[in-house]
Design brief:
heterodimer; A: alpha/beta; Amidase signature (AS) enzymes; globular; B: about 100 residues; two-stranded antiparallel ribbon; 2 strands; about 35% helix; flat
Chain lengths: ~500, ~100
């Protein structure tokens, strides 16, 4: 059953070949068997999922209408609120925080009978590219337990990669869905900014954040996007446009379509096996009849400086609410109000979070704001323009997802070196574009590699279409990590 | 762009409202020097006459709604997460030191 796509699972449930309770129990068993090695889950809501599965089975037996995600277990990154459950953001600051409301995506998923199975590990407050910054545990890559699954949505990526659940939600501010997808051989999608509601997502960089899905097939991504990709009145940046049908627009051939590649900004960085693998990916498009053309996206080379100014600036503001007053950690040593703020934040936040708050505060501070923050915002305008001009010449842009395959845990202690993991992914967040990472193939170390496709703003359907055609031709989504490639009795 | 000196770090640390230790500050001075050194790359870009990006999607407008009470967070639910509360209010240590 673990090899089935979410789409096939739902079909099997609807056809009566298995019950929702059987599906839920099956994946709970897999979690029990494999998660002690992977450490992907921070909490598993076994009672909740079984209760809802049983209720769904009754409804199905009574012939009542059942939802688009019926019977599908779904894991949720632990920075998204589920009412009554703990949301930790993998931080000591929120280790006991009980979410007082449901995120919009949770409401939407449960309205379509999706079975939420647990909360997954992340880098603290979504800051990181390895899931090593979690205050609680380090998640391992199901393809090699000595390696990182990527981050910050490493938990969700490991769950879907290891087939502990067919679907998961993550969040992507600078590549936090796509990079872990590439590292775990899964499909990870970041929608156009504003396509999916951020209400109930703990904010990191409000102009960059988007919730998005992980799956083992593009069709599954399309299926869940049709549920969560809709207007939300509680999110003032939510796009006021109708939800789209993606599933019916995946099959048209790509003959004559144009795939843009920004060769100039790749030439210095893309070397050796990464270069070969990227070319292998492009070859698939050529064989499908698409044309590879050169596009000018030179501002991508400035993505990292832009991102680490803008995202940390926004984060310093967003994390100011964690003050030890109304919720979260309050230091026991705080005897006056200033100590409530200063000591609670010192004790509650990890090193990377403290570093980014410092950086973000600096770039916004008086005397430096023009040189840093405003400068970055201007270059951002130029990047958005460059993409618009590029998309006048091509239908989709293809670039690698990551500069390399999954690195060994603890091998990148230098923060700046870690930030380079985001080299190819942050431009999509800076420009608000829909972007997907999908597996190309395994390398000689038996590790997955991803290719990334970006579309113009609002062209989520187009990205999914190209991705689906690539996946059909390539077939890499059939890969399962050997560790998890067995039934659990 | 300017370099980050010790005094500037101290001033910014105050604004962060995090009780960074001496060790933290030494370590941050090194890390941030390296990061800011890299960020200097942006100086290469001529941004004369370019407006800062205030919204990633040009079509987005500021949103208002009618001032009407909708769903409200119940007090008891809110207080469940508070570190200390009394009489339906969040309790904090003294704001003014005597």
């Amino acid at each position: 059953m673990y090899r089935k796509t979410a789409f096939a699972l739902r079909d099997a449930f609807v056809a009566g070949k298995c019950t929702a309770s059987q599906i839920a129990a099956y994946f709970l068993q897999r979690i029990q068997a494999f998660d002690r090695d992977l450490n992907a889950f921070l909490s598993v809501v076994a009672d909740r999922v079984m209760e809802r599965a049983e209720e769904l089975d009754i409804r199905r037996a009574q012939g009542k209408p059942i939802g688009k995600l019926a019977g599908i277990p779904i894991a949720i990154k632990d920075n998204i609120h589920i009412k009554g459950e703990i949301t930790t953001c993998a931080s000591r600051f929120l280790s006991n925080y009980k979410a007082p409301f449901n995120a919009t995506v949770i409401k939407l998923i449960e309205a379509e009978d999706g079975l939420i199975i647990g909360k997954t590990n992340l880098d603290e407050f979504a800051m990181g590219s390895s899931t090593e910054n979690s205050a609680f545990q380090v998640t391992k890559n199901p393809w090699d337990l000595t390696r990182s699954p990527g981050g910050s949505s490493g938990g969700s990526a490991a769950v879907v990669g290891g087939r502990l659940a067919p679907l998961a939600l993550g969040s992507d501010t600078g590549g936090s869905i796509r990079q872990p997808a590439a590292f775990t051989g899964t499909v990870g999608f970041k929608p156009t900014y504003g396509r999916v509601s951020r209400f109930g997502l703990v904010a990191f960089g409000s102009s960059l954040d988007q919730i998005g899905p992980f799956a083992n097939s593009v069709r599954d991504i399309a299926m869940i996007m049709e549920v969560i990709g809709t207007y939300c009145k509680y999110d003032s940046t939510s796009l006021d446009i109708a939800p789209e049908n993606y599933s019916d627009h995946l099959s048209a051939p790509l003959r004559g379509k144009r795939v843009g590649v920004p060769w100039k900004c790749l030439e210095d960085v893309l070397k050796g096996s990464e270069y070969d693998l990227f070319h292998q990916g492009l070859q698939v498009f050529k064989e499908l009849g698409a044309h590879i053309i050169d596009v000018d996206l030179n501002k991508i080379s400035y993505s990292i400086p832009m991102y680490y100014i803008l995202s940390t600036a926004e984060a310093s503001t967003n994390l100011a609410r964690f003050d030890g007053v109304r919720y979260g950690k309050r230091s026991e040593d705080a005897h006056v109000i200033d100590e409530v703020y200063d000591l609670s934040r010192k004790e509650g936040f990890g090193k990377e979070v403290q570093r980014r708050i410092m950086l973000g505060t600096f770039v916004l501070s008086s005397g430096y704001q023009d040189a840093y923050y405003k400068k970055a915002q201007k270059v951002r305008t130029m990047l958005i323009r460059e993409f618009r001009e590029a998309f006048a010449k091509c239908d989709i842009v293809a670039i690698p997802t990551t500069p390399g395959s999954a690195f060994t845990i603890n091998s990148i202690p230098d923060p700046l070196h870690m930030y380079f993991q985001d080299l190819y992914t942050v431009c999509a967040n800076l420009a608000g574009l829909p972007a997907i990472s999908l597996p190309i193939c395994l390398d000689t170390d038996n590790l997955p590699h991803g290719i990334q496709l970006l579309g113009p703003q609002l062209a989520d359907g187009r990205v999914l279409h190209f991705a689906h055609q690539f996946e059909k031709a390539r077939g890499a989504h059939e890969l399962v990590p050997p560790l998890c490639d067995r039934e659990v009795s | 762009m300017t370099k980050l000196d010790r005094q500037t770090l101290e001033d910014v640390a105050q604004l962060c409202r995090i009780n960074y230790s001496k060790q933290d500050k030494e370590s941050l001075l090194v890390d941030l020097a390296s990061i800011l050194g890299y960020i200097k790359l942006l100086d290469e870009v001529d941004t004369e006459g370019i407006a800062p990006c205030d919204h990633v999607l040009e079509t987005m407008q500021n949103v208002m709604r009618i001032d009407q009470v909708d769903e409200t967070l119940q007090r008891e639910v809110f207080l469940e997460n508070s570190p200390s509360h009394v009489g339906g209010m969040v309790r904090v240590p003294p704001v003014i030191k005597f």
